From TrEMBL:
Residues 2-87 form the YCII-related domain. It comes from the Bacteria. Keywords: Plasmid. The keyword Membrane does not apply. Belongs to the YciI family. This is YciI family protein. The keyword Acyltransferase does not apply. It comes from Rhizobium jaguaris.
Amino acid sequence: MLAVRVALSNPEKADARETYLQDHKRHLRSGRLRIVQSGPILDEAGEGSGGVVVADVVSLEEMHRFSAEDPFVLHGVYSSVSIHEWRPTISDRG
């Protein structure tokens, strides 16, 4: 199944975002989750205001565990995190 995590940044944690950015990237690239796509959400000024991760998982619990260990989650960089099963219905691949 595909799962999507949508996380919105906590503007009061901009310093923590910079501090933990490399750890966050290492976590995402660790191979512990089969990530299909991932990247920042940008605000109108082009600044990072959150992030999206789409992963191929066995269960939503797998995504919840992986997310809970993300340095951005552990250090409050995100003000909110939501995880959902995702079923794409439109694709450029047919």
